[in-house]
Write a structure and sequence with these properties.
The complex is a heterodimer of chains A (about 210) and B (about 200).
Chain A (H helix, E strand, L loop, with lengths): L18 H14 L9 H18 L5 H34 L1 H6 L1 H4 L4 H21 L25 E6 L4 E6 L5 E6 L4 E5 H9 L3 E3 L1
Antiparallel strand pairs in A: 1-4, 1-5, 2-3
Helix pairs in contact in A: 1-2, 1-3, 2-3
Chain B lengths: L4 H6 L3 H8 L3 E6 L6 E3 L2 E3 L8 E4 H9 L3 E3 L7 H13 L11 H11 L7 H22 L7 E3 L5 H45 L1
Antiparallel strand pairs in B: 1-4, 1-5, 2-3
The chains are: A alpha+beta (about 210), B mainly alpha (about 200).
Chain lengths: ~210, ~200
């Protein structure tokens, strides 16, 4: 069978994957996963690169027509990268807001967030808590006032289905299906599955699958 | 809210998927000389006609719009290959033919902006539409296979996945939730049949 994947940016066979492509993968994975994934440190690098690039554009401003055209292309690319960056960070903020209470109580989640995100999460939680308290909870009976009880906390559902593509041959894998029954599936390169996020969580971390 | 509602629901918008596919590499033939261009994602060029060069799709389209290059269609985007794919698509009811993940987005971007570089572009448009229809029919049929364990959807494109995602995810989740309650239900049913069996044994 013919293989068209040589044109594929998601292919590992490409010797060098640029920061932009790496960030894009993180963005796609983040958008598709029900859980918060570890923060990609490339964000800061890319912000710096963007600044350098805009300085270069500025310094080339008054040169010939060719340079003007190249500047336009650079500018266009910068806008694209900024879009990915913004969307990546906003996707994460959306999840942080949703699971603020849960993150707050689980130190393991702190490792996945950047320093700024941790500050955001804590402040957001404080604000929401104090707002709820002031607006209604104060008048409720004391035993209903606790916001940190287990059933009050929204957790990421790891059983949610995700679509994923296998990036390398993994072979026979045991996944947990309904009612905890384990099922064996054969994961070969370029297979596409829809399954529970929980089942491929570790593979995603190792970069052996990607979400779609 | 950090993300607009419509994005939270269907995961990707079609324009976002097009955006993602615009990072695929494509071969172009530059029409005029240009120095190498250093972008954040890498350096492309120098552009020296008549040497072809690979660039990301978005760059190819921009250059094409400024009449600075002509685009060489990817090797699957021609009548013969697509006819074969269509045939395979029709013959094999259970599988999707091996078109690239972004075949739909790339072809629509190229047919939109560079149809003069693609021979027989009108016929290709029709073929692509046919293929898409057949594949769509198959995904609809594939709904029968949906269960709360897993389904395999090899060769399905990103746009196609995104199309079925809201419905498939919802169905998957509903089945999963029902099955979480089911063991209790099954247990009570099993004990019922058991009591019936034992009572029939008595007769």
């Amino acid at each position: 069978m013919e293989n068209y994947n040589e044109n594929n940016i998601f292919n590992d066979e490409q010797e060098e994957i640029s920061d932009v492509h790496m960030l894009m993968k993180s963005w796609i994975n983040e958008r598709c996963s029900p859980d918060i994934l570890p923060y990609n440190n490339l964000v800061n690098d890319l912000l710096e690169q963007l600044e350098v690039q805009s300085e270069i554009i500025d310094s080339n401003k008054n040169e010939n027509v060719n340079a003007a055209f190249q500047n336009m292309l650079c500018q266009q690319e910068m806008d694209r990268v900024k879009f990915i960056l913004k969307n990546y960070l906003r996707t994460r903020l959306n999840k942080i807001e949703k699971y603020a209470n849960y993150i707050y109580q689980n130190p393991t989640y702190y490792e996945r967030l950047s320093d700024k995100e941790i500050t955001y999460c804590e402040q957001y939680k404080e604000l929401v808590d104090s707002h709820l308290l002031k607006s209604s909870l104060e008048t409720a009976p004391a035993f209903l006032q606790n916001l940190n009880e287990n059933n009050m906390i929204v957790k990421p559902t790891l059983d949610e289905p995700v679509f994923c593509r296998v990036k390398e041959d993994i072979g026979e894998v045991q996944i947990q299906g309904r009612q905890g029954i384990s099922i064996t599936i054969n994961m070969k390169k370029n297979n596409v599955f829809m399954l529970r996020y929980k089942a491929i969580e570790s593979f995603l971390e190792e970069g052996r699958v990607e979400l779609l | 809210m950090a993300l607009p509602k419509y994005i939270q629901q269907s995961v990707f918008t079609p324009s976002e998927i097009e955006f993602i596919s615009e990072y695929e590499q494509i071969t172009i033939l530059p029409l005029q000389r240009m120095e190498a261009i250093t972008l954040l994602e890498g350096t492309y060029g120098p552009f020296r006609p008549p040497l072809t060069i690979k660039v990301p799709l978005w760059l190819a389209v921009t250059l094409k719009k400024k009449h600075k290059c002509s685009i060489q269609p990817p090797k699957w985007l021609n009548i013969e290959t697509l006819k074969k794919k269509k045939q395979r698509e029709e013959e094999n009811e259970k599988e999707f033919s091996d078109l690239p993940t972004h075949y739909f987005e790339i072809s629509s971007v190229l047919l939109d902006s560079a149809s003069d570089d693609i021979p027989y572009s009108d016929e290709i448009k029709i073929l692509l539409k046919d293929i898409r229809e057949i594949r769509r029919r198959k995904t609809k049929k594939g709904l029968e296979l949906l269960n709360s364990n897993y389904i395999q959807l090899d060769n399905l494109g990103l746009m196609e996945i995104n199309e079925i995602r809201p419905f498939f995810s919802k169905a998957f989740n509903d089945m999963r939730k029902l099955e979480e309650i089911l063991p209790r239900f099954q247990d009570s049913q099993a004990s019922q049949t058991y009591s019936m069996a034992s009572s029939s044994n008595r007769y």
